[in-house]
Amino acid sequence: MAIPSKDIPEFHARLKDKVAEARARGQPLLIQGSNSKSFYGRHCEGESVDMTAYRGIINYDPTELVITANAGTSVKELEEVLAREGQMLPFEPPCFSETTTLGGMIATGLSGPRRPYTGSVRDYILGTRCLTGRGEILKFGGEVIKNVAGYDVSRLMTGAMGTLGIILEASLKVLPLPKFELALCKAMTVTEAMYVMGEIARKSLCISGAAYQNGLVRFRLSGKQVAVEKAWKALGLHEDPDGLDYWQGLRNHTLDFFNRENGSNLWRLSVPANTASMEIQGDSLIDWGGAQRWYYSEQPAEDIWQIAESAGGHATLFRGSNNAKEVFQPLSTVMHKLHQQLKQAFDPDRIMNRGRMYPDF
Amino acid sequence: MIEKFLKFLPANSVITAEEALRVYECDALSAYRQIPACVVLPDTVEQIQEILQICHAADVPVVARGAGTGLSGGALPVTDGVVLSLARLTRILEIDPELRIARVEPGVRNLSVSEVAKQYGLFYAPDPSSQVACTIGGNIAENSGGVHCLKYGLTVHNVMALKVVTMEGDLIKLGGEALDSAGLDMLALMTGSEGMLAIVVEATLKLLPLPVHQKIMLAAFDTVEEAGNGVAAIIAAGIIPAGLEMMDNPGIRACEDFVHAGYPREAAAILLCELDGIPEEVEAESQEIADLLRDAGATEVRMARDKAEGERFWAGRKAAFPAVGRIAADYYCMDGTIPRKHIASVLQRIRELSAEYKLGVVNVFHAGDGNLHPLILYDVAVPGELERAEEFGGRILETCVEVGGTITGEHGVGIEKINQMCVQFNSAELTQFHAVKNAFDPKGLLNPGKAVPTLRRCAEYGAMHVHSGKLSFPELERF
Ligand SMILES: Cc1cc2nc3c(=O)[nH]c(=O)nc-3n(C[C@H](O)[C@H](O)[C@H](O)COP(=O)(O)OP(=O)(O)OC[C@H]3O[C@@H](n4cnc5c(N)ncnc54)[C@H](O)[C@@H]3O)c2cc1C
User: Fold this and answer.
1) CATH, range A264-319
2) From CA B304, how far away is CA B455, in angstroms rounded?
3) Residues B244 and B257 occupy one common structural domain
4) Which of A204, A226, A292 sits opposite B209 (nearest CB)?
5) Which of A136, A276, B64, B293 could form an S-S bond across to B428 if both were Cys, CB 3.0 to 4.6 Å?
6) B336 closest CA partner among B279, B289, B404, B389
7) What separation, in Å, do the N-terminal and C-terminal C-alpha atoms of chain A show?
8) What is the C-alpha separation between B77 and B229, in angstroms, rounded?
């Protein structure tokens, strides 16, 4: 049920009171959507701010390619409404539950297998309304595709793990659903697979996914049927018996790979796509044509951060046994200082998801 | 201070002579002019760091400058300030065909990236009409678009990493060759920040494979409404063209008289549509679009038969600025963006304002993403016309905000739209912007007075706006 518009002013007022009170008491707030990604980021505590009641699509006009919704709206609902008009969220946000919310999707900034080809959450965010740690409800950006008035705070909020403020509503650019999709695969070594993925990326083919796992390279093609069939011919791979389901599983982490017993450390490495094999022991899965790599590894975090950094990327302990410690790649001294200053600009009393991203942040 | 600069910069890198400073007194919005105290032209990143440290210590404002093609006065100098020109940092440092990236210095011209990438079958997608002249540093500062951004995105979608120098002289790397990075997305924050947060000293750009096939078509309409419906119909059918541009009748006439592209001079509006991709897909979609446009009321749909004809279709659009330059002594280019569904009504409103202000207006714009570029015709030699043109422009931007749009789609706020920022944002939002600026540049020395108005300025503007309804040439803020 969408929140009735007559109830919105009261909801806002209550939230603002909560923030004012938290500031006065120095008591941090814990912003919550459906909790489907509560394992992600550092463990943090605070008084719960439940956003799930704050749901509903505010504006959607398919010919504008823009949808605006309240932060508690489920991604599932958004996608259903879009699909009815033949449109989609182009970045395939991972949904770890049926109830994953728009707010959580933006705050974590995670994107699925289509990311290297169509872009990420931050690429499609056009505007946000948020409640900052200063206790103000502010609107940035808007519902138009091109907009350079003011700093791009909406993109800054994307992936900020709720540390700058509470996202109340957001506008996203959307795209037409592909008319046709096809899943392909072929057995090969990781070295061969890396080579093939690199070659294919340089061509103008309608690729929408490229992954490698267990000796199998997989591609997904999306587009008009003629284009997909032509690309298939050019690639000369087999049709994947798992079909498109594999890509759904990869997106939403329902593949067996992602469902180990609790306690194993699952690392996400974001690296240049052509990075050669990495000195990390453990089971792995390569996504994003090489640019995103998943590892189960019990190596010390410092080693993994070091490996990621020397490859020109960064690593995150995505799911782990101990998220009381650092989970995100540590920042350089200058970057750390800038982060502190930006935090100060939005949330001077550090009440918003304190410590979720970095301990003092 | 100049002595300090000369310790590490050659004499020809420090300009202080008034005659030579005049070159830097304005950008492409020449109604605003200001002579700076000095212009420095460093060759290296270390020199930039040193210059900024010196200015920071001495509390001297710094305005970065690329090619000076900006249309909002972003690179307008500040009295007693330094202009930091990036014009000598023009090296393309690396093209990596495997990762499909180009690493470039900030003074590199936009077009030259695609020219160099071409040998690898790649190109850099953002293509502002000023691309032969404008720099990558300026593009990043403005988050520039181009005719192909409907499909390929703006500058922010095509930059992987930046090296920036803060006002204190710190060198920072943002982003990287991976698809995301740890921490806050400062890369996005920096893009479009109009030289207010830090100086871009290096950029890593995303390159794309050159499309194998293109098709260009032109459709004529008897009314602007029908042309607007044509745009909506294409999008509703699930097609994203590479480019989708509209011209109104005054635009068609001006361009046709100038380049003889064969445009239908009597049409109320034309659409130019470019598709790219693999031949089979492009051919199928172009047929589909032709049908959609006819259904929307197009009186004529022409498909370019070959490359030469396609180029002729584009020639008029690309020559729009000089074409308008021939029919008017001066013109003033606006840059609002609106939801596409309001194109017809906003163009109607612009026609009414045109009558009210007794100034002609020509519309040639990016219809696909609702980014209007009304060109207001005036003559600076006629007393009062410039002021009328500016006020007319301000009213257009406020109309854009009213229908849910924005005052600037790609040219930036600069000094030009600083008053309209007060219309689009409330004081709490502006205060938040100042806090962001403060996080990077606590002394407020980088490009002061631009992009975000002070609350005092807004109060004054609001008062003027309400009481007289007629605005005189606003005084520039002095620091
Ligand atoms: C004929 C014409 C057509 C145009 N067409 C388009 C178009 O289609 N699309 C579009 O988006 N724009 C267009 N423009 C506007 C303009 O070309 C762009 O805004 C361009 O990006 C400006 O680049 P520049 O190098 O000239 O920057 P400048 O004008 O020199 O500077 C612009 C701003 O960037 C800052 N800046 C410059 N370099 C740096 C740096 N290295 N680090 C930090 N800040 C910096 C300056 O301080 C200033 O605020 C057009 C302009 C003209 C004259």
Assistant:
1) 3.30.70
2) 52
3) yes
4) A204
5) A136
6) B404
7) 35
8) 44
The 10s digit of each residue's pLDDT in A115-174 is 999 999 999 999 999 999 999 999 999 999 999 999 999 999 999 999 999 999 999 999
Whether residue B110 has its Cβ less than 6 Å from ligand 1: no
A180-252 CATH: 3.30.70
Residue B269 sits in a domain whose CATH number is 3.30.70.3450
Check pocket membership of B64 for ligand 1, CB cut-off 6 A: yes
Contact A272 B154 (CB under 8 A): no
Domain end call among B297, B322, B347: B322
Closest to A144 (Cβ–Cβ): which among B177, B193, B337?
A: B337
Give me the residues of B, 439-478, that contact A with CB < 8 A.
Answer: 439-440, 451-452
Are B362 and B251 in contact by the 8 Å Cβ rule? The answer is yes
Tens digits of residue pLDDT in B59-75? 999 999 999 999 999 99
User: Which domain does B334 fall in, by range?
Assistant: 329-477
B283 Cα to chain A: minimum distance (Å): 11
* pTM assigned to the model: 0.96
Contact status, residue B368 vs residue B231, Cβ threshold 8 Å: yes
> End-to-end distance of chain B based on CA atoms, in angstroms?
18
- Smallest Cβ–Cβ distance between B172 and the set A123, A158, A335 belongs to A335
ipTM above 0.90, yes or no: yes
- A347 Cβ contact list (under 8 Å, min separation 6): A132, A133, A134, A163, A164, A165
Q: How many domains does chain B fold into?
A: 4
Q: Locate the chain B residue with the closest alpha carbon to A317.
A: B182
Contact by Cβ (8 Å): A125, A142:
no
Nearest to A300 by CA among A285, A279, A286: A279
Spatial distance between the Cα atoms of A125 and A123, rounded to a whole number of angstroms: 6
Report pLDDT for B163: 98
What residue spans define the domains of chain A?
5-176, 180-252, 264-319
Contacts of B150 in chain A (CB under 8 A): 145
Whether the domain at A180-252 and the domain at A264-319 fall into the same CATH topology: yes
| Domain limit, last residue, from B288, B322, B356 | B322
Assess whether the C-beta atom of B127 lies below 6 angstroms from ligand 1.
no
* B403, B358 contact by CB (below 8 A): no
